[in-house]
Fold:
Amino acid sequence: MGEDLEAVRTRWDGFLARIRERVEEILGEAGPGCMTVFEQGGFDPFTMGNVFPAIRTRLLDLSAKAEDAWFQQVAPAFERTEAYNRQVLDTEHAKLERLREWITYAFDDFEIRTKADASRILWARLSPKLPKDLRCTQCGSPVEIPLTFTAQNMRCRSCKSVNTFEPGEARILDSFAIRCLAHEEAWERRHGLPALPRPAPLCATETYAAELQLWERRYSQR
Structure:
């Protein structure tokens, strides 16, 4: 006599639920860990560079565990049930595919959000240090501060001398923060997620607009 179909299905659903719970636990623990690495690294966001691949590997191991369980135990158990047919097997295997897709989504969401959170911290720390006033080195006239976080040559409107705007350590806002925040917005649009707050001065830059357009184009092609 074959095994009861509902009993096998219940065990399979429970196993998939435990995998999902473990993924959520790993990501829940990893969030504070990433912020600790970020802070201990002097708020250099690139110190987290080795953390994300390690987290991803752990999640892929869980995905592989689910796949191994399917082929080695679960599929054979379904095939031994009295009510077995191909449609049953396809339906149950689809649950595995959805789990694997969700794991990929969960990790991507975690990485994007974590980097965006680090970007908000960088803005809070660096924005008070940004130049509030720029004077021409030749005539002393005020020079308009550009909406950028990269070094720029600015011409004085009074004497036409060239002056250099230097953002100093705030360069990281252009090379990291602005790009990560633009990625976050594209991600939210892609998945219909509520928009998190982002610093308006960063979002108003040309770098942000270009990066947002780049990510939206990438997502539209998937």
User: Anything to note?
Assistant: Residues 154 and 160 are 9 Å apart (CA to CA). Helices lie at 5-40, 51-79, 86-126, 171-191, 200-203, 206-220.
